[in-house]
Specification:
The protein has about 425 residues and is α+β, with helices and mostly antiparallel strands. The protein is built from 15 helices and 13 strands. Strand 11 and strand 12 form a beta hairpin.
Length: about 425
Amino acid sequence: MKKEILANGVTIIYEGDNQLEFTNIGVFVKVGSKNESIDENGIAHYIEHLLFRTRDNGNYITDYFNEIGAKFGGFTGKEYTSFYLKTLSEKAVICAEKLFEMIFNISTVSDNDFLIEKGIINQELSMYYNNPLENCKSTAIELSFGAHSLTREIMGTGENLEKFTRENIIDFHNRYYYPENIVVSITGKATDELIEKIKNTFGLLKRYNRYTSNNKIPLLSFSGGIKHIMSNSEQAHICFAFNMGVLTQREYFIIYIINKILGSANKRSHLFQTIREKLGLVYSISSQPIIYNEGSMLLIYAACSDTNLDPLLENTQKVLREFYLNGIDYNDLRFSKDQFASEMIFGLESSMDKMFYFGTNTILGKKIYSIEESRELLESITIDDVNNKITEIFNTEYSLSVFSNSKPEKYLHPM
């Protein structure tokens, strides 16, 4: 794996395998919904949509990708935006140039395409906001961290979307799509010609000195709370959120072990085995770590019939109390480490996954570990490391959101 920082600040990271006949290219931009003001919320996501409508000589640039059979896409997160493609290696050089043009020619988007994308995103918003589980999770996150920009939805709101103008879009694009905010990640067949083309093309970007001092995002401050919202859904939804603070990369590994034993669907999962397999209260119950540079949380969410809501809340809290008091044992630790090692190695067998791993860690300022380094770090984690972290997480306030047809009075109280 090689990493270079160009004179203008663009970072290029690549690992070639010339036995392959395809190439993966990802462009990562250090901007997401956390960088938006309240009035701008949703603009980063809107821009990502619009960039797939940039043109060259009147034609959509993405038409070329479709014509040659390349697989391409993009997404917006809370911390960064990504554009990526997979193509036959013989087409990689021209695809790299086209991808650059697509991302940096936003002025070529037509007024009609601006309107079309607003309509598409409005449909996306409607689907998302009519999903009670997602609303339940969002409410728990807002209870936890209040008005912080990381609690806002990536898609923003319909009201904001309607107000965005071409000038708003181009201004925001200029403010964040500058060289120091760009990482290009390449895996698969990475020829010298391709790497030179990427260096020469992305090296043309000019620094926008007036934009390089972006406002620093404050750390997340956890408040906690409990909220019930009446819902017309046939199912009740619950979501707990526990604060985990700012984590080191070593602590990521510890959190993975905790998550695997607490809420994954496996034979050693405390929540899954008790709430689903033993009591039959739900179809699924899961835990999910949400990790940002400014802080992190552990979510636990489930859905059930309204009649099962009180026993679900009661028994979930009971399992969490026991997990807090007893922690994990050596068999749990070994199981989690073996699961982690398998998933890590299987995942990095995919050159596309490896491209995302390189790009994501680089754009977020994280170290890139080799498989050997990861396994060594994993094996260094002790049962005391894990159980101390469990005590730290569950010995604090938490948030709980409940969406249901009836209010569960009995179990809406602190653990």
